[in-house]
């Protein structure tokens, strides 16, 4: 890149304070009242109604203008690719949710169609997701544990689990929590609460998904080794589960373990082969679907369940489920879980959606995404689906296969329509009276699909080099998610992330500024060698806003920048009249004259003559202090009181304090809090630091001239 040519400019204007700036710029003093805002928001017109309709149902905007020739083929190929990939993932993630695998296929069909109508992202692949599934599994196993469905078998004289009744109850629980999470998302979208995603920073999301991936892997170890550990809930449940699985390792089913290892190695090799041929073939090889088909055939032909005791999923019913409204009696027990699911699912989807929107130059409406996901989950709950979100792996496949629209940001690709076609065919035809693949194969698919999340551990050394606070957030989120489970861990992680922000505002960097020679730019003296200190003027700046949490430290930092000012201020508090010196002298001649001649009978008194002389100014004190409030974006009452105290205390020792670079909101805060009065006007506020410095230099020059004449 060629070196940029330096340009110069010259501006001639008067020194401007806020009062002069308001007059020159004709600042508006009128403010819209709350009544007018409400009246304007409910005002209806044809144009506004049309915009609202197109914004609420985006398909009406982009579908009539969809460029078939340019995008249909790419969307068709990507849709088929994602649909084939979604088949085994839906079945596998249903195991994480502790529901029969067919409900994973339903969750890959109904919610995708709803998002196709109401969503605004062109690239994310909505459907089952590992993190959401494991959170659903925690709820279903907590409210419908195996112990509630134990029955006595008279043939074997042992207690067995009524799996049919258990699975039916778990499906009802999953549908109820999915419906509740959808309602939360719709409600948050209607109240324009999309900004909540700003509290889910990228290090937090990546640390959280990595920790949740560990939960997913541990939950599938029982299928990998063929053991039956006791389900643990609550904090530290992951540790207890790992310890129990280690205790049960001698009881592992060898057949299940062999199948798991072979499947994992085969899937890894096939995925590497897919990556090698990625640029040579338009559609990736559906290795997961092939693995399921092979496992199904082997399980059917060799009767692995009876011969070797290998667990299989069982018979998958054909057809689609009729809509059933969720059981309202469960709602009260899953409200907290529903809110956690709504926030996590939205955070993952909008984070990935924004990445692709930035990459391809279109906009994702965060509030509309909340509504779209909410409708997908709430309607999906009626059709007995479990909560869905966005999958990183499927989204990457969808993009690499050509599913993208670059003509306009409102265009929506059709691959989300093509994606449900394959699952629907599978549900209606392929699964009819077929025995499903082994649970070990589905667990192996989950293990392999999570390898991309394990790569997120590489974020730690990268963040160590760039931002160690973000690295701390990543590590803390990961540990909290591991120890406290995904639901409580998310709340604790958000709280920890907010604490880091608070601590950083409490511990900002305080600097004394100096002027870059022959410019109106001011930089910290301790960072630039050529920056010149301004004689008689102290320019002070904090890198954070000024509010109750750091107001006291702000004043202490200002005092510590000049120890003499602090010492003089302390002495002033001890002696009320520090602006002058008192000299006491006993006028003995005057006393003798009074006692001997004028008042001979008067008792002798000590007459004191007081001579007041102006104090000599401490040369180490600045004549003026300029507070650069450019980084301050708001002031609370404590911050305003701090500024008032600084002006008063330094004014009493003859140091003028000026404010510079105040934003309009800060000026309004000062005015509302009563900072200005008859003595303190907007004349002490300057538009820039340079304006304040020029004014101070002029005042100092005049003061020195008067002192010289005197």
Automatic annotation (TrEMBL):
<dbReference type="Pfam" id="PF01740">
    <property type="entry name" value="STAS"/>
</dbReference>
<feature type="transmembrane region" description="Helical">
    <location>
        <begin position="471"/>
        <end position="503"/>
    </location>
</feature>
<keyword id="KW-0812">Transmembrane</keyword>
<dbReference type="InterPro" id="IPR011547">
    <property type="entry name" value="SLC26A/SulP_dom"/>
</dbReference>
<dbReference type="Pfam" id="PF00916">
    <property type="entry name" value="Sulfate_transp"/>
</dbReference>
<feature type="transmembrane region" description="Helical">
    <location>
        <begin position="282"/>
        <end position="302"/>
    </location>
</feature>
<dbReference type="GO" id="GO:0016020">
    <property type="term" value="C:membrane"/>
</dbReference>
<dbReference type="InterPro" id="IPR002645">
    <property type="entry name" value="STAS_dom"/>
</dbReference>
<keyword id="KW-1133">Transmembrane helix</keyword>
<dbReference type="InterPro" id="IPR001902">
    <property type="entry name" value="SLC26A/SulP_fam"/>
</dbReference>
<feature type="domain" description="STAS">
    <location>
        <begin position="527"/>
        <end position="696"/>
    </location>
</feature>
<feature type="transmembrane region" description="Helical">
    <location>
        <begin position="339"/>
        <end position="358"/>
    </location>
</feature>
<feature type="transmembrane region" description="Helical">
    <location>
        <begin position="252"/>
        <end position="270"/>
    </location>
</feature>
<dbReference type="InterPro" id="IPR018045">
    <property type="entry name" value="S04_transporter_CS"/>
</dbReference>
<dbReference type="InterPro" id="IPR036513">
    <property type="entry name" value="STAS_dom_sf"/>
</dbReference>
<keyword id="KW-0472">Membrane</keyword>
<dbReference type="GO" id="GO:0008271">
    <property type="term" value="F:secondary active sulfate transmembrane transporter activity"/>
</dbReference>
<protein>
    <submittedName>
        <fullName>Solute carrier family 26 member 6</fullName>
    </submittedName>
</protein>
<feature type="transmembrane region" description="Helical">
    <location>
        <begin position="173"/>
        <end position="200"/>
    </location>
</feature>
<feature type="transmembrane region" description="Helical">
    <location>
        <begin position="93"/>
        <end position="118"/>
    </location>
</feature>
């Amino acid at each position: 890149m060629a070196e940029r040519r330096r340009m110069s400019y010259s501006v001639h204007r008067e020194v401007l304070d806020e009062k002069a700036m308001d007059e020159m710029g004709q600042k508006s003093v009128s403010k819209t009242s709350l009544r007018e805002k409400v009246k304007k928001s409910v005002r209806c017109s044809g144009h506004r109604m049309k915009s609202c309709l197109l914004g609420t149902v985006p398909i009406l905007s982009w579908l009539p203008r969809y460029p078939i020739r340019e995008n249909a083929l790419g969307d068709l190929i990507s849709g088929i690719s994602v649909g084939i990939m979604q088949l085994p993932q839906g079945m596998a993630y249903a195991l994480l949710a502790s529901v029969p695998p067919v409900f994973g296929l339903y969750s890959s069909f109904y919610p995708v169609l709803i998002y196709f109508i109401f969503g605004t992202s062109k690239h994310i692949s909505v459907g089952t997701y590992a993190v959401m599934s494991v959170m659903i599994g925690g709820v279903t196993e907590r409210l419908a544990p195996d112990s509630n469905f134990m029955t006595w078998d008279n043939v074997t004289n042992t207690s067995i689990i009524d799996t049919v009744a258990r699975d039916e109850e778990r499906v009802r629980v999953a549908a109820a929590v999915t419906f509740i999470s959808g309602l939360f998302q719709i409600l948050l979208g209607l109240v324009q609460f999309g900004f909540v995603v700003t509290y889910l920073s990228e290090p937090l999301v990546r640390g959280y998904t990595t920790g949740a991936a560990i939960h997913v892997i541990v939950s599938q170890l029982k299928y990998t080794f063929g053991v039956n550990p006791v389900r643990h809930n609550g904090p530290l449940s992951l540790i207890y589960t790992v310890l129990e699985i280690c205790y049960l390792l001698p009881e592992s089913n060898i057949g299940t373990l062999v199948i798991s290892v072979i499947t994992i190695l085969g899937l890894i090799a096939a995925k590497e082969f897919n990556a090698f041929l990625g640029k040579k073939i338009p559609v990736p090889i559906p290795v997961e679907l092939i693995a399921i088909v092979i496992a199904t055939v082997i399980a059917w032909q060799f009767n692995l369940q009876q011969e070797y005791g290998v667990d299989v999923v069982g018979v998958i019913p054909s057809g689609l489920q009729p809509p059933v409204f969720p059981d309202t009696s469960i709602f009260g027990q899953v409200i907290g879980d529903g809110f956690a699911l709504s926030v996590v699912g939205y955070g993952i989807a909008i984070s990935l959606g924004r990445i692709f929107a930035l990459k391809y130059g279109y906009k994702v409406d965060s509030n509309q995404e909340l509504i779209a996901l909410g409708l997908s989950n709430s309607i999906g709950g009626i059709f007995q689906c479990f909560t869905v979100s966005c999958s990183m792996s499927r989204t990457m496949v969808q993009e690499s296969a050509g599913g993208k629209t670059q003509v306009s940001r409102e265009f929506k690709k059709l691959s989300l329509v093509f994606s449900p076609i394959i699952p629907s065919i599978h549900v209606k035809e392929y699964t009819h009276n077929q025995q499903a693949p082994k649970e070990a194969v589905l667990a192996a698919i989950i293990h392999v699909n999570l390898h991309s999340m394990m790569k997120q551990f590489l974020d730690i050394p990268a963040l160590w080099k760039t931002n160690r606070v973000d690295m701390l957030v990543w590590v803390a989120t990961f540990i909290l998610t591991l120890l406290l489970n995904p639901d409580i861990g998310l709340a604790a992680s958000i709280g920890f992330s907010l604490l880091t922000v608070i601590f950083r505002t409490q511990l900002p960097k305080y600097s004394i500024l100096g002027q870059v020679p022959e410019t109106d730019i001011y930089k910290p003296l301790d960072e630039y060698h050529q920056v010149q200190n301004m004689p008689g003027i102290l320019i002070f700046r904090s890198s954070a806003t000024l509010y109750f949490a750091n107001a006291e430290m702000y004043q202490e930092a200002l005092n510590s920048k000049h120890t003499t000012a602090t010492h003089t201020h302390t002495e002033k508090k001890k002696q009320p009249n520090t602006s002058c010196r008192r000299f006491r002298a006993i006028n003995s001649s005057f006393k003798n004259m009074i006692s001997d001649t004028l008042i001979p009978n008067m008792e002798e008194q000590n007459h004191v003559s007081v001579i007041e002389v102006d104090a000599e100014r401490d040369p180490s004190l600045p004549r003026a202090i300029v507070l650069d409030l450019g980084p301050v974006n708001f002031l609370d009452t404590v911050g305003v009181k701090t500024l008032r105290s600084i002006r008063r205390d330094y004014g009493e020792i003859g140091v003028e304090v000026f404010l510079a670079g105040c934003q309009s909101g800060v000026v309004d805060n000062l005015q509302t809090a009563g900072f200005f009065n008859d003595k303190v006007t907007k004349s002490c506020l300057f538009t820039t630091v340079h304006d304040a410095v020029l004014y101070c230099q002029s005042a100092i020059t005049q003061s020195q001239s008067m002192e010289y004449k005197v």
